């Protein structure tokens, strides 16, 4: 038994090493970084974080990212709920084909869509808005949300629906007050994965924005190229992007594994 | 079991409209470009299927496609067995389970450009932890900006770091769903560890493994941001994977026609291979 636990420990250490290095870098001064190798920050500084929290171009990057990610999560889960219900409860013309077609959009390389997306969202006047990024990320998040939610809904017996209708519940009232609460773990898992994939995607987010809705990634790229090589600042910005994900994952820790297990291919 | 109800279409309509808006219109734009030639000013000429022929015959495309298949092959061969092995050795219950899961999931929640930047900082030859260790402690000459082999090892290691946890989480989900009675029965029968794995654990993990392999195939085949930030496709063209090459052609050279034709071929290959994987892995279920 003892020997077996070595494997996960070594694996987690391997995962933590690059993260540790990023965090350690973020507390070093630029001089110390360029002067040579040091395992721990010698002159511990919060200067890099101070720059980020006082410069609007920096902290607005985070606010913008959080705004469009939240919008995307709300939109994706809201429209996927009724759709997943339909897939789990009814047979209708073209249902299997539609389900498969939805999943194929998860396979489209983002690089393929970068330029057409730019043109499409410019044409409809949404370029450089949070809504544009939120809608664009629906391309891969809605199929995933439908897939996960459908798996959870299949686990709810149909008798629940029938009993509620016999009791005189209208469909919307049944759906909102009985059905959705009974799959709230599924809603949590779906929202988590939408958050995750929208938060980490950067190619489309960068392509669809210029100034007003610019994500944190674009600000980081600019720093890397224009202000010389400010590694400490870059590391601090990177460290801060890990935090929202870490918070969200802590809330759904007991459901993550289950969420995927219940989905179907 | 399920009832026939055509009104269900109203439930899927919002999803259909949103995804169609994002998928069909851009796809039509790509198809449009792929059969035309432009010299700017929005003047287009009919080009037929010339771009497709040009791309399919070009050495550059073959090379990028080859590199892409090699990369995807390597990460699948490493991540899937490694992920299963780690999931098997994880404790089934206890206070450490959620801590393990959260720490393991952490790399997947870091924005992809940050993953690239993080690995850049990690591997810098003189001031990065890994770079310093290899160069000055192990005495290995390591610099991924100079040496194609080092660049390859680095991006594969980065992907293993980034995504093995997905396989672990999914396999683990499959494993915890096995009732204890199965193990007890196996023990009474005197089954070896291998037999337990082969006849109890592996079949139970099959569904989730199918999902894991499909997701890992799709995402590694479409990978762009991380290797782009880390190597920019270099040194030379040695790590120019398909998406990197595509963006170079489309946004770097602004050759919209060839880029569009390449996009469609690329998407078709992804679809075809995903379908093959899916058919092969679910074949037994149908019989």
Search tags:
heterodimer, A: 265 residues, mainly alpha, MetI-like fold, 77% helix, globular, B: 287 residues, two-stranded antiparallel sheet, 12 helices, transmembrane helix (chain A), MetI-like (chain A)
Describe the structure.
The complex is a heterodimer of chains A (265) and B (287). In chain A, 77% of the residues lie in helices and 1% in strands. Chain A is an all-alpha fold and 265 residues long. Chain A has two domains: 1-45, no CATH class; 55-262, MetI-like fold (Orthogonal Bundle). Chain B has one domain: MetI-like fold (Orthogonal Bundle). In chain B, strand 2 and strand 3 (44-46) form a beta hairpin. At the A-B interface, helix 1, helix 4, strand 1, helix 5 and helix 6 of A face strand 1, helix 1, helix 3, helix 4 and helix 5 of B. Strand 1 of chain A pairs parallel with strand 1 (3-4) of chain B.
Superfamily at the CATH H level of chain B? MetI-like
CATH superfamily membership of the largest domain in chain A = MetI-like
Approximately how much beta-strand content do the residues of chain A carry?
Answer: under 5%
How does the major sheet of chain A shape up?
A: none
What profile does the largest beta sheet of chain B have?
2 strands, antiparallel
Large-scale geometry of chain A: globular
Q: On the 0-100 scale, what is the average pLDDT of chain B?
A: 85
Q: Which structural class is indicated by helix and strand composition of chain B?
A: mainly alpha
Number of strands of chain B: 3
User: First CA to last CA of chain B: what distance?
Assistant: 21 Å
Number of helical elements of chain B: 12
- The order of strands across the largest sheet of chain B is 2-3
Number of domains of chain B: 1
In percent terms, what proportion of residues of chain B is strand?
A: under 5%
């Amino acid at each position: 038994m003892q020997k077996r636990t070595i494997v996960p420990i070594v694996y987690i250490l391997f995962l933590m090493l690059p993260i540790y290095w990023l965090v350690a870098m973020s507390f070093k001064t630029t001089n110390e970084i360029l002067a040579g190798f040091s395992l721990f920050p010698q002159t511990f500084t919060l200067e890099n974080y101070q720059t980020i929290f006082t410069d609007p171009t920096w902290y607005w990057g985070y606010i913008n990212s959080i705004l469009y990610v939240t919008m995307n999560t709300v939109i994706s889960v809201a429209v996927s709920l009724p759709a997943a219900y339909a897939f789990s409860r009814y047979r209708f013309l073209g249902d299997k084909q539609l389900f498969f077609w939805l999943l194929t959009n998860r396979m489209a390389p983002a690089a393929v869509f970068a330029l057409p997306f730019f043109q499409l969202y410019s044409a409809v006047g949404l370029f450089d808005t949070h809504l544009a990024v939120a809608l664009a990320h629906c391309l891969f998040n809605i199929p995933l949300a439908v897939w996960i939610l459908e798996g959870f809904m299949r686990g709810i017996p149909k008798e629940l629906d029938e009993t509620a209708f016999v009791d005189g519940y209208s469909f919307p009232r049944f759906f909102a007050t009985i059905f959705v609460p009974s799959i709230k773990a599924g809603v949590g898992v779906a929202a988590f994965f939408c958050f995750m994939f929208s938060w980490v995607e950067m190619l489309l987010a960068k392509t669809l924005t210029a100034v007003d809705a610019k994500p944190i990634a674009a600000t980081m790229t600019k720093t890397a190229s224009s202000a010389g090589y400010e590694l400490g600042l870059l590391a601090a910005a990177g460290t801060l992007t890990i935090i929202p994900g870490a918070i969200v994952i802590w809330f759904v820790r007991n459901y993550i594994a289950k969420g995927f297990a219940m989905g179907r291919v | 079991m399920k009832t026939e109800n055509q009104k269900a279409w109203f439930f899927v309509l919002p999803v259909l409209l949103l995804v169609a808006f994002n998928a069909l219109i851009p796809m039509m734009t790509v198809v449009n470009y792929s059969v035309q030639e432009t010299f700017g000013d929005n003047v287009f000429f009919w080009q037929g299927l010339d771009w497709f022929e040009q791309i399919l015959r070009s050495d550059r495309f073959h090379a990028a496609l080859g590199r892409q298949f090699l990369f995807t092959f390597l990460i699948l061969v490493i991540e899937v067995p490694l992920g299963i092995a780690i999931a098997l050795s994880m404790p089934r219950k206890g206070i450490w389970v959620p801590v393990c899961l959260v720490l393991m999931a952490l790399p997947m929640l870091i924005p992809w450009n940050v993953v690239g930047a993080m690995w850049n900082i990690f591997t810098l030859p003189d001031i990065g932890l890994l770079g310093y260790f290899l160069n000055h402690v192990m005495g290995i000459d390591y610099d991924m900006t100079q040496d194609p082999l080092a660049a390859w090892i680095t991006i594969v290691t980065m992907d293993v770091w980034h995504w093995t946890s997905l396989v672990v989480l999914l396999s683990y989900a499959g494993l915890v769903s096995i009732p204890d009675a199965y193990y007890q029965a196996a023990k009474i029968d005197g089954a070896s560890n291998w037999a337990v794995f082969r006849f109890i654990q592996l079949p139970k993990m099959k569904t989730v493994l199918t999902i894991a392999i499909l997701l890992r195939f799709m995402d590694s085949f479409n990978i762009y941001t991380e290797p782009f930030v880390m190597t920019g496709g270099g040194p030379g063209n040695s790590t120019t994977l398909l998406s990197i090459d595509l963006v170079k052609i489309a946004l770097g050279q602004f050759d919209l026609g060839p880029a569009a034709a390449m996009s469609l071929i690329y998407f078709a290959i992804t679809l075809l291979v995903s379908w093959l994987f899916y058919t092969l892995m679910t074949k037994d279920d149908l019989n």
